[in-house]
Write a structure and sequence with these properties.
The complex is a heterodimer of chains A (about 200) and B (about 400).
Chain A: H1 10-17, E1 33-39, E2 44-53, E3 58-67, H2 70-82, H3 88-92, H4 96-103, H5 111-131, E4 145-147, E5 152-153, H6 154-162, H7 168-175, H8 185-199
Antiparallel strand pairs in A: 1-2, 2-3, 4-5
Helix pairs in contact in A: 1-2, 2-4, 2-5, 6-8
Chain B: E1 6-7, H1 18-27, H2 39-59, E2 66-69, H3 72-81, H4 91-95, E3 99-103, H5 108-119, E4 123-127, H6 137-143, E5 148-152, H7 166-175, E6 179-183, H8 195-198, E7 202-206, E8 217-221, H9 247-285, E9 289-292, E10 302-307, H10 312-321, E11 324-325, E12 327-328, H11 341-345, H12 350-354, E13 356-360, H13 367-386, H14 391-395
Parallel strand pairs in B: 1-11, 3-4, 3-5, 5-6, 6-7
Antiparallel strand pairs in B: 2-8, 7-8, 9-10, 10-13, 12-13
The chains are: A alpha+beta (about 200), B alpha/beta (about 400).
Chain lengths: ~200, ~400
């Protein structure tokens, strides 16, 4: 029987088969920061914990656990390797696209599964700041209402792009954005381009 | 161990039966159009009609009550779409039908067709199911009114294998004067099905779920049942479905059904044995599992199991790497994170729906393969649970 190719790259497959840095010793692991995101009801959940080299301001160790699919497992495994030794600021600014590049690309429809890891990492970094009385360094991801008629925020638009929306019409279908007065169309279209560039590799 | 291709996804599709393959190869050169009057056409016509007789006799119908279609989905759509027919001569139109009843666990082709009817102004009511996936006859009685034109309930569920009391449902539906359709795609060829005993008006079956070719299905249309074609433009299939017959597919389906009639009894017994061994092996070797579906009224080949704290797609892909093909009820792998609508309908929590896999056996599976599955699964589930955020809670 010929082996049909996997929908995933060899790197994804390798990390899926041999995931790195799984948090097996949760109770005894003295983490400096912890982030939990996702929701089991939605099909995926992620925990990321970090230890910080306080002198250098870098990540000394990063471990994780997930209830998630192959993409979530592989992308978080890669992420946990990438951030070791990385400055906290640089790690905070990692995007799903950076991770996907490292993985050699994920199928577009699986990209939304891979964003949990970096989100949990940002939460862990913020948690580290809070625990060490550096609240001023905590970066908030603020939501902003873009469509006032339907009360749709930029984060909801980003989520819809990750779920597959590629045009203004598809965004309308998925979120109802811009289906009231329609004044926000230009801004939404700009956001659409921003999020497409942020999360997806060039075709 | 290198992948050796153990196929346990027979509810998705089945490998073609060697006899079906042989007959299809033999008849490959009979290209004649069954509608042609010359010898080429007559040869094709004869084979098509022989196949029709085999299908009819297998389910207890008359040959003229069998309409071939391109798929089970097409057959289901044909039945449902007729409800909104506005032609004056159409039975549904004459009766002023504006309501149908179906269930929450139907195949997407029935659910989507129902949704489309709703958008065209038909009132669509849904039967709930209990924890085993059974519809309630009581609720059916409550929902049925003189406005109800059509009721469509699947005979056996594709994800969890639960078999409905089709005879009981048909009786209630007919008491209220409505028409009854059952999607029996997963049932025909696996369990005995007789349209006269069940007293259904429409019944859908499909070739590729019973070791026949893909792209061929059939619809039983009870004599006198209100019918309206989905595809117009030809006299084929007694004017019920236009388009030159898929002769090779029809011949393949006929042979597949002939083989089912010979093998269904022994297969059923063997599959039940394999399934029992698999279930026992899972129960004995993996803690915190939940079997979904009815314990007895279930397809002999189908086992749906949820492993607490383990996500379905990850299980499927690890098993794939071990050479075992099964599937998940959830559509995650195809891009949506929506959990299985069938498992949610049984009232189980969303994490069960995200973590269940469907093992559907077939005539080619062996006890050695079951043993290999039982050896492999605990390792795979253990690995996933080690990295699971959900399972750790249980241990605490």
């Amino acid at each position: 029987m010929t082996q049909a190719s996997w929908a995933y790259t060899d790197t994804v497959k390798e990390h899926f088969m041999n995931p790195r840095n799984i948090l097996m010793d949760e109770d005894s692991y003295k983490e400096h920061g912890k982030g939990v995101t996702g929701n089991v009801k939605c099909g995926d959940e992620m925990i990321v914990v970090i230890k910080v080299d306080k002198e250098k301001g870098t990540i000394a160790d990063c471990k994780w656990k997930t209830f998630g699919c192959a993409s979530a497992i592989a992308s978080t495994s890669v992420l946990s390797e990438m951030v070791k030794g990385m400055k906290l600021d640089d790690a905070y600014n990692l995007s799903a696209k950076d991770i996907n590049r490292e993985l050699g690309g994920l199928p577009d429809h699986k990209v939304h599964c891979s964003v949990l890891g970096d989100k949990a990492l940002r939460m862990a970094i913020n948690d580290y700041y809070v625990r060490n009385e550096m609240e001023e360094k905590v970066k908030k991801e603020e939501e902003r209402v873009v469509c006032k008629c339907m009360n749709i925020t930029d984060q909801e638009i980003e989520h819809a792009v990750l779920e597959g929306a590629r045009t203004f019409y598809e965004l309308q279908e998925m979120t109802k954005v811009g289906t009231g007065c329609g004044e926000c169309e230009q801004e939404v279209t700009q956001l659409l381009e921003t999020y497409k560039t942020k999360h997806f590799c060039e075709v | 161990m290198s992948p050796k291709g153990i196929y346990m996804d027979n509810n998705a599709t089945t490998p073609i039966h060697p006899e079906v393959k042989r007959v299809m190869i033999e008849t490959m050169d009979l290209f004649g159009n069954p509608s042609s009057l010359h010898v080429f056409g007559r040869q094709a016509r004869q084979l098509v009609e022989e196949a029709r007789e085999k299908v009819a006799s297998f389910i207890g119908a008359s040959p003229e009550e069998i309409m071939f279609a391109g798929s089970g989905s097409e057959a289901n759509n044909t039945v449902l779409s007729a409800v909104t027919c506005q032609r004056k001569q159409c039975a549904y139109h004459q009766q002023g039908v504006n309501e149908i009843i179906t269930s929450t666990i139907e195949h997407p082709c029935v659910l989507e067709a129902s949704k489309c009817l709703q958008e065209r102004g038909v009132n669509v009511l849904y039967l709930d199911v209990d924890q085993y996936g059974k519809v309630s006859l009581e609720q059916l009685r409550d929902l049925l009114t003189e406005r109800t034109g059509l009721v469509s309930v699947m005979m056996a569920n594709n994800e969890i294998g639960t078999i409905q009391d089709i005879k009981g449902i048909a009786e209630i539906v007919h008491e209220r004067g409505a028409v009854f359709h059952t999607d029996a795609v997963q049932a025909v060829g696996r369990i005995p099905v007789n349209v006269r005993e069940l007293d259904v008006d429409f019944l859908t079956l499909s070739g590729h779920k019973m070791y026949g070719p893909k792209g061929i299905g059939a619809l039983y249309v009870k004599k006198g049942a209100p019918f309206c074609p989905l595809i117009r433009g030809g006299h084929q299939e007694r004017g019920r479905r236009a388009g030159t017959e898929n002769t090779l597919g029809i011949i393949g389906l006929g042979k597949a059904i002939e083989m089912r009639s010979q093998e269904i009894k022994s297969d059923e017994k063997r599959l039940l044995e394999l399934k029992a061994a698999l279930k026992k092996g899972i129960e004995e070797n993996i803690p915190d599992v939940l079997f979904v579906g009815h314990p007895t009224d279930c397809l002999p080949n189908t086992l749906n199991v949820s492993f607490e704290g383990a996500e379905g797609e990850a299980i499927i892909l690890y098993l794939d790497l071990e050479g075992i093909a099964v599937s998940t009820g959830s559509a995650c792998a195809t891009g949506s994170l929506d959990p299985s609508h069938v498992i949610l309908a049984t009232g189980l929590p969303a994490e069960c729906a995200h973590g269940s896999i469907r093992i559907s056996l077939g005539r080619e599976n062996t006890m050695e393969e079951i043993t290999y599955m039982i050896d492999t699964l605990p390792r795979v589930i253990g690995k996933i649970r080690d990295m699971s955020t959900v399972y750790r809670r249980r241990l605490q």
